[in-house]
Amino acid sequence: AKCEANTFDGERCLYGALNSEIRNLLRDYKVVSSTIIRRELYPEFLRRLFEFSEFADVCFIVHDRKFFAHKCVLSARSDYFNDMFLDKWLGRREIYIRHELVSPYAFHGLLQFLYQGRVEIHVDYIDDLQRLAKQCKITTLMQRLEEMAYKAQFFECTKPGTKVTNLVIETFDHLELSSDFGILTEEALPLYMSNWIGPSELPFYPEERAPFADVIFCVDGHRFKCHKASFFS
């Protein structure tokens, strides 16, 4: 049971506490505050979007295993995917990946990191995921994989008989995710309403804004190019 505010499990935790001192500690601890719950809504939304694949507009088939995804998410998080969707994979809804060095398990981990900023992976697939991260130019994932692999090896050396089987790779905070997905928000706005975004030093907008939008809202003559996945809950 999780000690969350305004939930049955939260109250059950408080009720089951051994004494008043423990109950007071639980009430005072940040985990039971509604603020923390609101803060966790964003990663929970990304988790559900990744796991349920609602409104997915592309399917990767890796050695006969299917992975449904959203072009807008992958393009916002990876320049590699963005370039491929606008060039080699333009207009394609199914993409076959048959390279022997790309394992379905590692590809799943790559997608999970792009969506959630974290991934749990078996040590046997670390090299495969590292190779994919390098191919897709996902620097943060490459760095974190190297750091965690080193820490796991060091831990095993200092604890004889201990064997690390799984690693959890995650970003230190959600600022990177918020920044990347914030691009989708800017692109949804009409050009005259949005702030400039982009890597160039000059304030030029990309030629095509929101290329993967799948729904347009018209409000008082203003057109907002959005993604259905953004409204999934």
From TrEMBL:
> What GO cellular component entries does it have?
cytoplasm; ubiquitin ligase complex
Identify the PROSITE patterns for this entry: BTB (PS50097)
List keywords of the entry alphabetically. ANK repeat, Repeat
User: What is the protein's given name?
Assistant: BTB domain-containing protein
This protein's species is: Romanomermis culicivorax (Nematode worm)
Give the matching Pfam families.
BTB
Q: Which InterPro entries match?
A: ABTB1, BTB/POZ_dom, SKP1/BTB/POZ_sf
| Top-rank taxon | Eukaryota
Chain ranges of the BTB domain: 56-123
- Is Repeat given among the entry's keywords? yes
